[in-house]
Amino acid sequence: MPSPPSAPSVPPSRNGPPGLTREARVTAALINLADTLVDDFDPAEFFYRVAEHCMDLLDIGDAGVMLALPGGPLRLVAASSERVRLVELFELDASEGPCCTAFRDATPVDHAINGLSSQRWPRFTTRAHHAGYTSVHATPIRLRRETLGVLNLFRRVPGPLLEGDRHLARALADATAISLLQQSTLDQHRTVRTQLETALVTRTIIEQAKGFLTARHETDPDTAFHRLRAHARHHRLRLADLARDIVDGTTTLPPPDTDRTSAP
Fold it and tell me: What keywords are annotated for this sequence in UniProt (predicted)?
């Protein structure tokens, strides 16, 4: 009796449990993003989870999340790596690029980066090309008719983001906006604006703590941030609170070779 055909191999997940199909990981991600109706909701950690789910589910090399207060400018609140963080900050400083346009026009934007001069966004294109990216897909985070921010998806291999990934990126952006709205209903005194303000303020504290750990332990920023998040999760601390304590000197993380919470 011939043996049944073997199931196709499942690509490994960057962040999710190993062995799960992509469909199962999509379901788990949407459930995870919807789980915001809790008293200890951590906006900073939430937006880093959004970036992680983008990395896990989409064929991209890096992801960034930008937000804006009503009537205010875009600001970076989460990035999957130090490399993309610097590109995103350059884009905001230059006030040009697909992410800024996607936010202003409230529509997805695709941009190919091939090393040639771009008439539309020349400075951004040059900076992104030097960072190793080949294309960008920016999709707005919208709540009804209001645009709250943008998901920025960077690729390092040739070709644009596939159509299926574009639809999934739209779903992740919608889930992000809906989660912010439902969390704000937990307390009538909370608003989406308050959540955005909290995320924007705490990002500065987190960057300070990341820089402190980078210098103190002579490591790179990505490793320092990974250890910061791992320690917060292991000890059930809010990411911003731990970062503030590290900057203030009231909490000290052990050296990397003795800190088991930072192990993958």
Answer: Kinase, Transcription, Transcription regulation, Transferase
Domain that holds residue 247: 201-262
pLDDT in tens, 230-253: 888 888 888 888 898 988 888 888
* Tokens of residue 94, six digits: 């230059």
Do 87 and 63 share a structural domain?
A: yes
Task: Clarify whether residues 155 and 210 are in a common domain.
Answer: no
Residues 142 and 257 reside in one and the same domain: no
**Whole-angstrom distance, CA of residue 75 vs CA of residue 140:** 13
Distance CA 89, CA 75 (A): 8
Same domain for 74 and 176, yes or no, is yes
| Residue whose token pair is 């963080």 | 85
At what angle are helices 192-216 and 163-184 packed, to 10 degrees?
110
| Whether residue 251 sits in one domain with residue 137 | no
d(CA 140, CA 132): 24
Same domain, 141 and 246: no
Pairing mode of beta strands 75-79, 62-67 = antiparallel
Distance set, CA 201 to CA 17, 120, 143 (Å)? 32, 32, 21
Q: What is the pTM of this model?
A: 0.69
pLDDT tier at 263, thresholds 50, 70, 90: very low
Q: Which long-range contacts (CB under 8 A, 24 or more apart) does 258-262 make?
A: 259/227, 259/231, 261/227, 261/230, 261/231, 261/233, 261/234, 261/235, 262/226, 262/227, 262/230, 262/231
Beta bridge partners of 147: 142
